Amino acid sequence: MMTIIYYLIIISLFSIGLAIMPIPGKGVLSLKPNIGGSKIWKFFLSFNSLENILSGTGYLITMRKYQYGRWIICILIAVYAIYFKNVRLFVILFMIYFITMPFENIKQKQTPFGLAMQFMRRNYSNKKDIEIYQSISLLRNMVVGSKVYKLSTDHIIEQLAIYSDILRHTYFKMMNLLRLNRKQEAVKLFYMEIGTKAGKDFGRILTSIDEVNPRELEEILISLQKNIREERITKQRKRDEVLSDILYLPVIVNVILIFINFIYVAYFVNQKNIFSMMMN
User: What pTM was computed for the model?
Assistant: First the structure.
């Protein structure tokens, strides 16, 4: 029991020391860590950071919360491993510790954390494209009804924002820039927020609604919708091909093992028998 208390005190003091360390660039430890680099000091100095560690994924978790969370998990596993004297748990602890380190790259090599971030960003980007596709469908319906009422850029973007989820704030930001007659900045903002080709094209269409007649606008929207659909089909086919390769991998391994077994039985066993006969 005293051993457990001793280790708990050591771990607690270490955690408190990390928590009260100065912010990078201030105080005695005026280091400037590289976020994507190989400087491990960033890990120890990031407890005071309020930056979003999951930027570009649609989720918000500050560096401080992430670090405290992973340290609590590591401490609990360490206490459990010490109490039951389980060596395997220590191995698992070190694996969890290094895998969850908040580095996307170390010496230009992607880490497991970086792979997870890449997957989450790709998934979030796909969600944005899906929402753009839905916005195009809504805009097409509005264009069809434009014979009854005149199209207004403000009104269209406002309606798109109402029926959107992920892109709602982006639409409102874009609308504010358009009201200030800053079209180029609005297009750039939309592209930077979306980060895909479909987002850039749709941003240009939204800024030129007043300059294009409804019939031409409908044709442009149909063409853009078709391009997005084809791109999604291509991505889906690639994913299906990768999944198919993964599913067929065990079959291929089994076939290779059968061939190896056949070669062993047909050749080496025969050679063994011949060698035995020669020895006799």
Answer: 0.68
